[in-house]
Amino acid sequence: MRLFDAHCHLEEEAFDEDREEVISRAIKSGIIGIVTSPIYPEDAEKALSLFRDHQVVKVSIGLDVAEYGEDDEVEKTIQLILDNVDDIVAVGEVGLDYRVASRGGPDKDRQKEVFRRFIRLAKELDKPLVIHSLWAQRPVLRVLDEEGASRVVLHAFGGKPDDIKFAVERGWVISIPTNVVRSENIRRVAECTPVEVMVLESDSPVLAPNPRERNEPANIRVSLTYISKLKGYCPEDLASITTDNARKVYELWDPV
Ligand SMILES: [Zn+2]
Predict the structure, then answer these.
(1) Residue 112 Cα, ligand 1 centroid: separation in angstroms?
(2) Is the pTM of this model over 0.90?
(3) Distance (Å, whole) CA 25 – CA 247
């Protein structure tokens, strides 16, 4: 079995006590690759120092949408991406979050302005984008399309069938999180997503199959079993397909 966790946050404090054990459990359950996506500059530095030459864990650098109003944080993040371009596999997670806007965070226009900067940067550097979209699936797709983004991972995507179709037509990848086992909305996304553009993610430490537990990459096994049944695939086949999709979008063909 070859599995890939296309998105999580292993540098977070939640893993400070037992990070190595979490990674060994992931490897034991068949995971051959993990992309961790720090969303604050200090976490990006931590992730790079932990995983710069790691065999299994790869780093992508992004910024929490709630920070898009802070020029300092935006500039620091861009600089970190530029300084570490050879050590990262993607730009993100970046995107739009209209729930944050509705709660006094950066407004929609400001969010779009910063999001566009990250999309252009990823294009310049020829890196894929890991995309966050909350209450803003359609606006995210529109901005990505206007900017001509081509390599895209829509992380924990909660869009409607039309949105999924829009993404699939552009060859963008849809990442199904482990809470698919308990979220009706995510289950619908999994149903509508062709396996040719599907990857699996844990989004650890959040979105666990059991909402009372800390999530970890090994739980991809749980969502794999669930999605295999949903799509009528044998788990080994779905594991290979989604793993190859992830390795392709992140250009991680080398080890294993
Ligand atoms: Zn995340």
Answers:
(1) 19
(2) yes
(3) 20
